[in-house]
Amino acid sequence: MIGVIAGIVSVANWLRGEDAAASDTGTEATIPGPDSKVPGAENATGKDPAADPAPQASAPGATAKPDDGSAAAPALCPAGSVGVSATTDSLSYTAGITPVLTLTVTNTGTEPCDVNVGTSQMEFIVTSGSDRIFSSADCQQAGEDLLKTIKPNSVETAKFTWERQRSAPGCAEVPSNPNPGTYMFTARLGDISSERTTFELE
Asked: How far is 72 from 70, CA to CA, in rounded Å?
C-alpha cells in the first residue's frame, strides 16, 4: 500500500513539473503606466517623485534594467518583432464607471530582445470618429525610460485608468467632457501603434 501511495505522489509531482515547464513558454509581466494630472491643472498632483514606482532614468535612452552580471546583453528588438495591442476591461461602461485601458507589448520574434517599455514611450489615445478626445501624453508627469528584456511570445502590460475626461496638448483646460457614445482606444509605444479597440460610454 505504501508503495502505491509513493507511486501516486511521484506521478503527481511529475505532472506538476510538466505544468511548470509549459508555463515557462510564455510569461506576462506588468509595468508602470503613465502618471497624469487633471486637464487644466497648472501644477502636478503633489506626488513625491521618490515614491513613484516607475524607475528613474539618468538620461534619455538610459536603461533601468538591473545588472544581472551576464556577459552579453540582448540586442534591441527590431521593429518587426514588437507587437502592440490595445484592450479595455469592458465593452460598455455605465455612468460613473471609469474604463481601464491596457497596453500590451509582445515579442513576436524568436530570440529574447530589449524594448523600451518606459512611460516616456507610452501613449493611451481615445477618439470618437475624427474627434481626438484624450491622450495620456497631454497631461503626463515626467516620463521615464525602462529597458526590459522580453522573451519570445512573452508580454509586458501597462494599465491606465481613464477618468472620462477630455484633454488637450499642454494639459490645457477643456470646457466639456465626453458624452455617452462609441469611443475607440489606440495604444502606442514609441513609433508602434496598435489596432483600435471599440467601447461604449453610457
From this structure: 6
First CA to last CA distance, the chain: 64
Domains of the chain, start order: 28-36+79-202 (2.60.40.10)
Residue tagged 528613474 (cell numbers): 56
CB-based contacts of 27: which residues, under 8 Å, 6+ apart? 151, 154, 155
CA dihedral (200, 157, 187, 105) positive or negative = negative
The amino acid sitting at 28 is E
Q: pLDDT tens digits, the chain, 202 residues: what are they?
A: 444 444 433 334 433 444 433 334 457 788 888 987 777 665 433 333 333 433 333 333 434 454 455 556 789 999 899 999 999 999 999 999 999 999 999 999 999 999 999 999 999 999 999 999 999 999 998 889 999 999 999 999 999 999 999 999 999 999 889 999 999 999 999 999 999 999 999 9
